[in-house]
């Protein structure tokens, strides 16, 4: 029921347990999404909290995604002012939260913006900051993000449109730092 007004207010346990929080998008900036946290409402208590708590925004970044300039425009079109989103905490860096961001699309369907940006070819996969790189969750999420990026590359969408030949795309993907890290991890697993 507590309304978080700063990334530093969020308890470490919430981040460690990857808790999902709810919020309203206020602005889309180069730094990330500025989101007003919307706590679980308890009728009488919520009315009191609104009066006394300051209007402060959390900075939410899309974890595991390096955004292109076109991604910012797409996010500004996709996310309406005061739109309700869910953000799953994966890490915290100073005043920013690294999160998976989910948007409801209809009654039973929600879309992960991190994956959707990659699927549209509007960004590249990056390291997921805040999660331990040897954790199961890290590799599960990383695999999902890489699959989404690969779909865009195969369909020549967004930033992949420039790279017309499949050989160029595969060369670029295989020579990326992320792919090198994955290969090292796979070799390390094979050695045990």
From TrEMBL:
Localisation per UniProt entry: Membrane
This protein's UniProt keywords: Acetylation, Membrane, Transmembrane, Transmembrane helix
Topology of this chain in the membrane: Single-pass membrane protein
Gene Ontology cellular-component annotations: extracellular space; membrane
Protein's UniProt keywords contain Cell cycle: no
Recorded coiled-coil stretches: none
Listed PANTHER family: PROTEIN C3ORF33
Protein name: CC033 protein
Record organism: Crypturellus soui
Classification lineage: Eukaryota, Metazoa, Chordata, Craniata, Vertebrata
């Amino acid at each position: 029921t507590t309304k978080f007004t700063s990334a530093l207010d969020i308890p470490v346990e919430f981040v460690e347990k990857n808790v999902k929080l709810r919020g309203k998008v206020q602005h889309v900036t180069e730094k990330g999404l500025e989101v007003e946290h919307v706590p679980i409402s308890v009728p009488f208590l919520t009315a009191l909290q609104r009066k006394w708590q300051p209007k402060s925004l959390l900075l939410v970044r899309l974890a595991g995604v390096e955004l292109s300039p076109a991604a910012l425009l797409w996010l500004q079109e996709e996310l309406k002012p005061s739109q309700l989103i869910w953000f799953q905490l994966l890490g915290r860096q100073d005043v920013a939260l690294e999160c998976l961001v989910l948007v409801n699309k209809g009654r039973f369907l929600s879309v992960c913006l991190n994956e959707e940006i990659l699927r549209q070819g509007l960004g590249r996969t990056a390291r997921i900051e805040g999660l331990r790189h040897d954790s199961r969750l890290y590799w599960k999420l990383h695999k999902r993000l890489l699959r989404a990026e690969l779909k865009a590359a195969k369909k020549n969408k967004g930033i992949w449109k420039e790279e017309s030949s499949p050989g160029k795309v595969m060369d670029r993907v295989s020579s990326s730092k992320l792919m090198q890290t994955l290969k090292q991890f796979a070799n390390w697993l094979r050695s045990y």
